[in-house]
Amino acid sequence: MPGDAGVGAQSATVRRGRRGAGTVALAAVLLATVTGCGDDGRALREPGADQTTTSAPPGGTTTTLAAGATTTTTVPLQIASPAFGDGATIPGQYACRGADVAPPLSWTGIPADTVELAIVVRDVDAEGFVHWVVAGMAPTVGGIAEATPPPGIEATNDFGRPGWAGPCPPSGTHNYEFTLFALAEPSGVVAGQPASEAASAVETRAVRASAVLSGSAAAG
Predict the structure, then answer these.
(1) How does pLDDT run across 60-80, given as a tens digit for each residue?
(2) How far apart are CA 44 and CA 184, in angstroms?
């Protein structure tokens, strides 16, 4: 029937029009989706000029620093002697039965805001018997030479003499601690001051840091 053919042709034309419109609509939706994804914050961006990221080695942490910032590594206060290692035997020349001269000492890592350096040497196996107190040393001093007056003030030791008194255990083996103090305030120690007073003055002051060198000595 001619009428049906005309209607069929018209319906086909309508369907093609709808498919075309659907295709255009779908393309618009996809374009909008792609455009939105580029602006949702998930896209990769070049790092800003105001930040620098550094990665720490395994076991460390990752730190983000502003451009131009610097990090400061703090070196711990340390005291040592070229004459003996930490925990080792103190050579006989520094003991009462030898030349009885003060051993050489050196140190590193003095805090920047240190006011004064001081050293107290005690026999920890003789109720803290004081063998040496040196105070009033400038923070710029890096050590004390062997058998040389220190660049500071010496108090009296527990033997009743000014300056150094070497290890002198009556029996067995005793342990000695050379403690370096980086003081935050003046010690107030004066030359010839009794050992217990001078040591207490140093040990009770506010400190920035302290470090210990240990050594031992035997009787006989």
Answers:
(1) 333 344 555 555 567 899 999
(2) 51
